[in-house]
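Human:
Care to share another protein and its fold?

Assistant:
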Amino acid sequence: MAQARGVAGGDKKKVVAITVAVVVLAALVIGGVIWTTSSKDSTAGRVIQPQASTAVAPGVVQKRDGAVVVVGKPEATKTIDIYADFLCPICKQFEEKFKDQIQEQVNNGVLQVRYHMLPMLNQRSDPPGYSMDSANASLAAADAGKFLAFHDALFKDQPQEGGRGFDKGQLIKLGQDVGITDPAFATAVNTGVYEQQIQDAYKKTSTDPSLQQDFGNGPGFGTPTVASNGQVVKLEDGWVQKVVA
C-alpha cells in the first residue's frame, strides 16, 4: 500500500508538471503573438518626426520632373541618379553613410542629384502599399519644395520591413510638420496622383540593362543603386569624391 501511494503521488506530480509546462508554453506563445503584433504595428498612431537635415544652401532647387526629383543648383556640372525605396533597410544605411557627403557637393554647386523613389518593396509592408504611398507623397513634397526634409524624415524613422508602414494620414502630417501648407499636398497623397507615373518609371528602371548588377545569383536590379554617366557606381568609400572629380 505504501508503494501504491508512492506511485499515485508520482503520477500526480507528473500531471502537475505537464499542466505547468502547458501553461508556460501557452503563455510563451501568447506573449510571442502579442510581441510580434506589437512590433508589426509599431507605426500605428505614431507621428513621424521631422529631422534636422543637412542645411540646404541658397540656390539649391528641389523640383519634380515627372517621377523624378531633381535636387541641385542649375549650374552643377556633375549629375548622379539615386534609385531607392523608402522601405529598403540598405537604402537607409546608404543615406546614413553618404547623405552629408552628397549634400555638401550639392551645396557647393558641383553636383545635381536625381532621386528615383521606387515601389520595389511595395508588397513587403503589412498591409502592402507603403513603398508606393511614400514615393507618391515624396513627389508631392517636391512640388512644395520640401522633398529633402520629407525624404530624410522617412528614412530616419523607417518602418520595419514586413510590418505596418505609415498611412496616408501620417504622411500628410509629416508634410505639414516640415512646412507644407498647400492643401494640394494632402489631395495628392490621398488620391495617389503620381502612382501611375511611379509604376511606369519602376518598370522601365528595373529592366534597364545599364542598371543591372550581379548580386550573386545573376544580373538584376536592386536598391540602392547610384548611376553616373550611364554607369552604375560602386558604392565604396570615396565614391562621391570620385564622381565629382
Notes: Residues 1-7, 32-36 have pLDDT under 50 and may be disordered. The beta strands are 61-65, 68-72, 78-84, 111-117, 213-214, 219-220, 225-228, 231-232. The radius of gyration is 25 Å.
